[in-house]
Amino acid sequence: MASSANESAGSAHASPEAARIQKAIETVKPKIQRILLKYNGEPAGNALSLISPAQEIKHMYIDADLAYRRNVFGRNCGVHPASREGEGLDHVHAQNLALFITFRRFSEEELEDPMCFEPAGTETAESVKRRDLQLELNARTFAEASGYLRTIPHYDLMYLSVTCSHTFAALNIMEGGCQGLHTELLLGCFSTEIPNILMSYPSWGKPMKHGIPCTVFRRELEEACPELPAFLSKAGNNHPMFSTNPDFHKELVRDYIDWRRAEGTMPYEGIFAELGLNWDTDTESDDESTEPERKKGKLESARGGG
Q: pTM higher than 0.90 for the full model?
Protein backbone atom coordinates (compact mmCIF):
# COMPACT_ATOMS: atom_id res chain seq x y z
CA MET A 1 0.00 0.00 0.00
CA ALA A 2 2.81 2.37 0.92
CA SER A 3 4.50 1.70 -2.42
CA SER A 4 1.29 2.39 -4.35
CA ALA A 5 0.77 5.58 -2.40
CA ASN A 6 4.30 6.73 -3.21
CA GLU A 7 3.82 6.00 -6.91
CA SER A 8 0.57 7.93 -6.92
CA ALA A 9 2.22 10.83 -5.17
CA GLY A 10 5.09 10.75 -7.68
CA SER A 11 2.66 10.85 -10.58
CA ALA A 12 0.74 13.68 -8.99
CA HIS A 13 3.91 15.73 -8.60
CA ALA A 14 5.28 14.99 -12.09
CA SER A 15 6.45 18.17 -13.78
CA PRO A 16 4.39 19.56 -16.67
CA GLU A 17 7.34 18.84 -19.01
CA ALA A 18 7.54 15.21 -17.87
CA ALA A 19 3.80 14.84 -18.36
CA ARG A 20 4.04 16.37 -21.84
CA ILE A 21 6.85 14.02 -22.83
CA GLN A 22 4.96 10.99 -21.57
CA LYS A 23 1.83 11.99 -23.45
CA ALA A 24 3.79 12.59 -26.65
CA ILE A 25 5.48 9.19 -26.34
CA GLU A 26 2.13 7.47 -25.89
CA THR A 27 0.90 9.18 -29.06
CA VAL A 28 3.79 8.22 -31.36
CA LYS A 29 4.91 4.93 -29.79
CA PRO A 30 2.42 2.69 -31.67
CA LYS A 31 3.58 4.15 -35.02
CA ILE A 32 7.24 3.68 -34.10
CA GLN A 33 6.69 0.11 -32.97
CA ARG A 34 5.00 -0.74 -36.27
CA ILE A 35 8.04 0.59 -38.17
CA LEU A 36 10.46 -1.28 -35.93
CA LEU A 37 8.46 -4.49 -36.24
CA LYS A 38 8.45 -4.20 -40.02
CA TYR A 39 12.14 -3.40 -40.54
CA ASN A 40 14.02 -4.73 -37.53
CA GLY A 41 14.47 -8.13 -39.14
CA GLU A 42 16.46 -6.73 -42.06
CA PRO A 43 19.85 -8.49 -42.37
CA ALA A 44 23.02 -6.42 -41.97
CA GLY A 45 23.63 -6.44 -45.72
CA ASN A 46 20.35 -4.61 -46.31
CA ALA A 47 21.10 -1.75 -43.92
CA LEU A 48 20.56 0.81 -46.69
CA SER A 49 16.87 -0.15 -46.75
CA LEU A 50 16.59 1.14 -43.17
CA ILE A 51 17.57 4.72 -43.98
CA SER A 52 14.09 5.83 -45.05
CA PRO A 53 12.22 4.39 -42.03
CA ALA A 54 14.94 5.76 -39.72
CA GLN A 55 14.44 9.23 -41.20
CA GLU A 56 10.67 8.84 -40.74
CA ILE A 57 11.20 7.98 -37.08
CA LYS A 58 13.60 10.89 -36.57
CA HIS A 59 11.27 13.48 -38.06
CA MET A 60 8.29 12.05 -36.20
CA TYR A 61 10.14 12.51 -32.90
CA ILE A 62 11.37 15.99 -33.80
CA ASP A 63 7.81 17.05 -34.69
CA ALA A 64 6.62 15.71 -31.32
CA ASP A 65 9.49 17.54 -29.54
CA LEU A 66 10.86 14.20 -28.36
CA ALA A 67 14.10 14.82 -30.24
CA TYR A 68 15.91 18.05 -31.01
CA ARG A 69 18.77 19.44 -33.05
CA ARG A 70 21.87 20.36 -31.08
CA ASN A 71 25.50 21.10 -31.84
CA VAL A 72 27.35 18.45 -29.81
CA PHE A 73 30.97 18.84 -28.72
CA GLY A 74 33.23 15.82 -28.97
CA ARG A 75 34.34 16.27 -25.37
CA ASN A 76 30.74 15.68 -24.24
CA CYS A 77 29.91 12.74 -26.51
CA GLY A 78 30.52 9.10 -25.67
CA VAL A 79 29.29 6.01 -27.44
CA HIS A 80 25.97 4.26 -26.88
CA PRO A 81 26.09 0.54 -25.97
CA ALA A 82 23.90 -0.20 -29.01
CA SER A 83 26.23 1.52 -31.48
CA ARG A 84 27.41 -0.80 -34.26
CA GLU A 85 25.61 -3.73 -32.65
CA GLY A 86 27.63 -3.39 -29.48
CA GLU A 87 31.04 -3.07 -31.15
CA GLY A 88 31.44 0.50 -29.91
CA LEU A 89 34.58 2.45 -30.80
CA ASP A 90 37.61 1.12 -32.65
CA HIS A 91 40.56 3.33 -31.71
CA VAL A 92 42.48 2.47 -34.90
CA HIS A 93 39.52 3.50 -37.02
CA ALA A 94 39.14 6.72 -35.04
CA GLN A 95 42.83 7.58 -35.54
CA ASN A 96 42.65 6.79 -39.27
CA LEU A 97 39.49 8.84 -39.58
CA ALA A 98 41.16 11.80 -37.84
CA LEU A 99 43.94 11.62 -40.44
CA PHE A 100 41.47 11.18 -43.29
CA ILE A 101 39.39 14.20 -42.25
CA THR A 102 42.50 16.29 -41.69
CA PHE A 103 43.63 16.19 -45.30
CA ARG A 104 40.15 15.92 -46.80
CA ARG A 105 38.99 18.81 -44.57
CA PHE A 106 36.09 18.55 -42.14
CA SER A 107 32.75 19.05 -43.86
CA GLU A 108 29.32 19.00 -42.25
CA GLU A 109 27.84 18.12 -45.64
CA GLU A 110 29.70 14.79 -45.62
CA LEU A 111 28.46 13.75 -42.18
CA GLU A 112 26.13 10.77 -42.21
CA ASP A 113 23.30 12.10 -40.08
CA PRO A 114 24.83 12.20 -36.56
CA MET A 115 22.38 10.92 -33.93
CA CYS A 116 22.76 10.68 -30.16
CA PHE A 117 20.71 9.77 -27.11
CA GLU A 118 20.70 11.49 -23.78
CA PRO A 119 22.22 9.24 -21.10
CA ALA A 120 19.70 7.37 -18.95
CA GLY A 121 18.46 9.10 -15.84
CA THR A 122 18.12 7.95 -12.26
CA GLU A 123 14.36 8.09 -11.83
CA THR A 124 13.77 4.35 -11.68
CA ALA A 125 15.77 1.21 -10.90
CA GLU A 126 15.66 0.29 -14.59
CA SER A 127 17.00 3.67 -15.70
CA VAL A 128 19.79 3.48 -13.10
CA LYS A 129 20.73 0.03 -14.42
CA ARG A 130 20.78 1.38 -17.98
CA ARG A 131 22.89 4.38 -16.97
CA ASP A 132 25.40 2.16 -15.15
CA LEU A 133 25.74 0.04 -18.30
CA GLN A 134 26.32 3.13 -20.43
CA LEU A 135 29.00 4.53 -18.11
CA GLU A 136 30.68 1.14 -17.75
CA LEU A 137 30.89 0.64 -21.52
CA ASN A 138 32.47 4.05 -22.08
CA ALA A 139 34.96 3.61 -19.24
CA ARG A 140 35.97 0.21 -20.64
CA THR A 141 36.22 1.57 -24.20
CA PHE A 142 38.65 4.29 -23.17
CA ALA A 143 40.68 1.95 -20.97
CA GLU A 144 41.04 -0.68 -23.73
CA ALA A 145 42.18 1.96 -26.25
CA SER A 146 45.56 2.11 -24.46
CA GLY A 147 45.73 5.88 -24.68
CA TYR A 148 44.73 6.19 -28.36
CA LEU A 149 41.30 7.63 -27.53
CA ARG A 150 40.75 10.73 -25.48
CA THR A 151 39.08 9.74 -22.23
CA ILE A 152 35.81 11.48 -21.43
CA PRO A 153 35.07 11.56 -17.68
CA HIS A 154 31.62 10.26 -16.76
CA TYR A 155 30.55 13.68 -15.49
CA ASP A 156 31.19 15.18 -18.95
CA LEU A 157 29.13 12.59 -20.82
CA MET A 158 26.04 14.49 -21.93
CA TYR A 159 25.32 12.53 -25.12
CA LEU A 160 25.79 8.97 -26.39
CA SER A 161 26.23 8.56 -30.14
CA VAL A 162 24.55 5.82 -32.16
CA THR A 163 25.90 7.13 -35.48
CA CYS A 164 29.11 9.04 -36.35
CA SER A 165 30.70 7.77 -33.13
CA HIS A 166 34.13 7.67 -34.75
CA THR A 167 33.74 11.20 -36.08
CA PHE A 168 33.20 12.45 -32.54
CA ALA A 169 36.18 10.36 -31.41
CA ALA A 170 38.33 11.80 -34.21
CA LEU A 171 37.40 15.31 -33.09
CA ASN A 172 38.44 14.40 -29.56
CA ILE A 173 41.76 13.08 -30.84
CA MET A 174 42.46 16.36 -32.60
CA GLU A 175 41.60 18.36 -29.48
CA GLY A 176 44.40 16.61 -27.60
CA GLY A 177 44.89 14.43 -24.59
CA CYS A 178 45.79 11.10 -26.20
CA GLN A 179 48.50 9.32 -28.16
CA GLY A 180 48.70 9.38 -31.95
CA LEU A 181 49.16 6.60 -34.50
CA HIS A 182 50.13 8.99 -37.31
CA THR A 183 53.01 11.43 -37.18
CA GLU A 184 51.04 14.08 -39.05
CA LEU A 185 48.64 14.24 -36.12
CA LEU A 186 51.20 14.53 -33.35
CA LEU A 187 50.52 18.23 -32.98
CA GLY A 188 46.86 17.56 -32.36
CA CYS A 189 47.42 14.57 -30.11
CA PHE A 190 50.10 15.98 -27.84
CA SER A 191 49.42 19.72 -27.88
CA THR A 192 46.97 21.57 -25.67
CA GLU A 193 47.40 24.74 -27.70
CA ILE A 194 44.24 24.76 -29.81
CA PRO A 195 45.35 27.85 -31.80
CA ASN A 196 48.46 25.94 -32.90
CA ILE A 197 46.34 22.97 -33.95
CA LEU A 198 44.03 25.19 -35.99
CA MET A 199 46.98 26.91 -37.64
CA SER A 200 48.01 23.55 -39.10
CA TYR A 201 44.53 22.02 -39.49
CA PRO A 202 42.09 24.93 -39.96
CA SER A 203 39.12 22.83 -41.09
CA TRP A 204 38.79 21.43 -37.55
CA GLY A 205 38.05 24.93 -36.27
CA LYS A 206 34.29 24.83 -36.78
CA PRO A 207 33.55 21.55 -34.95
CA MET A 208 35.99 22.48 -32.17
CA LYS A 209 34.33 25.85 -31.66
CA HIS A 210 30.70 25.04 -32.43
CA GLY A 211 30.38 21.27 -32.16
CA ILE A 212 28.87 18.81 -34.67
CA PRO A 213 25.19 19.25 -35.71
CA CYS A 214 23.32 16.27 -34.30
CA THR A 215 19.83 14.94 -33.68
CA VAL A 216 19.48 14.18 -29.96
CA PHE A 217 16.77 11.81 -28.72
CA ARG A 218 15.41 12.29 -25.23
CA ARG A 219 16.30 9.57 -22.77
CA GLU A 220 12.63 8.76 -22.17
CA LEU A 221 12.45 7.37 -25.71
CA GLU A 222 14.93 4.63 -24.95
CA GLU A 223 12.94 3.68 -21.87
CA ALA A 224 9.78 3.44 -23.98
CA CYS A 225 11.44 1.75 -26.99
CA PRO A 226 14.65 -0.01 -25.86
CA GLU A 227 15.29 -1.38 -29.36
CA LEU A 228 15.31 2.11 -30.95
CA PRO A 229 19.05 2.99 -30.48
CA ALA A 230 20.20 -0.25 -32.14
CA PHE A 231 17.83 0.28 -35.06
CA LEU A 232 19.01 3.85 -35.67
CA SER A 233 22.64 2.77 -35.40
CA LYS A 234 22.14 -0.02 -37.92
CA ALA A 235 20.44 2.39 -40.33
CA GLY A 236 23.03 5.14 -39.92
CA ASN A 237 26.29 3.14 -39.98
CA ASN A 238 26.31 1.91 -43.56
CA HIS A 239 30.04 2.10 -44.20
CA PRO A 240 32.54 -0.42 -42.79
CA MET A 241 35.36 0.92 -40.65
CA PHE A 242 38.65 2.11 -42.10
CA SER A 243 40.49 -0.58 -40.19
CA THR A 244 38.52 -3.42 -41.84
CA ASN A 245 37.60 -2.17 -45.32
CA PRO A 246 40.17 -2.30 -48.15
CA ASP A 247 38.33 0.27 -50.28
CA PHE A 248 38.53 2.82 -47.50
CA HIS A 249 42.25 2.08 -47.18
CA LYS A 250 42.76 2.69 -50.88
CA GLU A 251 40.91 6.00 -50.78
CA LEU A 252 42.85 6.98 -47.70
CA VAL A 253 46.13 6.07 -49.39
CA ARG A 254 45.35 7.96 -52.61
CA ASP A 255 44.52 11.22 -50.86
CA TYR A 256 47.26 10.90 -48.28
CA ILE A 257 49.92 10.17 -50.90
CA ASP A 258 48.88 13.24 -52.89
CA TRP A 259 49.12 15.33 -49.74
CA ARG A 260 52.52 14.04 -48.69
CA ARG A 261 53.81 14.13 -52.26
CA ALA A 262 52.99 17.83 -52.47
CA GLU A 263 55.03 18.36 -49.32
CA GLY A 264 57.90 16.31 -50.76
CA THR A 265 58.80 15.04 -47.30
CA MET A 266 58.69 11.27 -47.66
CA PRO A 267 59.02 8.63 -50.40
CA TYR A 268 56.06 6.41 -51.13
CA GLU A 269 57.37 3.34 -49.31
CA GLY A 270 57.68 5.43 -46.15
CA ILE A 271 54.15 6.77 -46.49
CA PHE A 272 52.77 3.25 -46.86
CA ALA A 273 54.75 2.02 -43.87
CA GLU A 274 53.43 4.91 -41.82
CA LEU A 275 49.88 3.91 -42.72
CA GLY A 276 50.57 0.28 -41.84
CA LEU A 277 50.07 -0.81 -45.46
CA ASN A 278 52.14 -2.87 -47.86
CA TRP A 279 53.61 -1.10 -50.88
CA ASP A 280 53.48 -4.19 -53.12
CA THR A 281 49.99 -5.46 -52.28
CA ASP A 282 48.14 -2.18 -51.76
CA THR A 283 49.13 -0.61 -55.10
CA GLU A 284 48.21 -3.46 -57.42
CA SER A 285 46.47 -2.42 -60.62
CA ASP A 286 44.40 -4.35 -63.12
CA ASP A 287 47.22 -4.17 -65.67
CA GLU A 288 50.07 -6.16 -64.12
CA SER A 289 52.38 -5.47 -67.09
CA THR A 290 52.42 -1.74 -66.46
CA GLU A 291 52.51 -1.93 -62.66
CA PRO A 292 56.33 -2.00 -62.19
CA GLU A 293 56.79 1.03 -64.44
CA ARG A 294 53.93 2.84 -62.69
CA LYS A 295 55.52 2.23 -59.29
CA LYS A 296 58.93 3.26 -60.57
CA GLY A 297 57.56 6.48 -62.02
CA LYS A 298 55.76 7.29 -58.78
CA LEU A 299 58.83 6.71 -56.70
CA GLU A 300 61.05 8.83 -58.95
CA SER A 301 58.46 11.59 -58.92
CA ALA A 302 58.12 11.43 -55.12
CA ARG A 303 61.89 11.65 -54.77
CA GLY A 304 62.20 14.50 -57.21
CA GLY A 305 63.54 12.29 -60.02
CA GLY A 306 62.84 12.53 -63.72
A: no
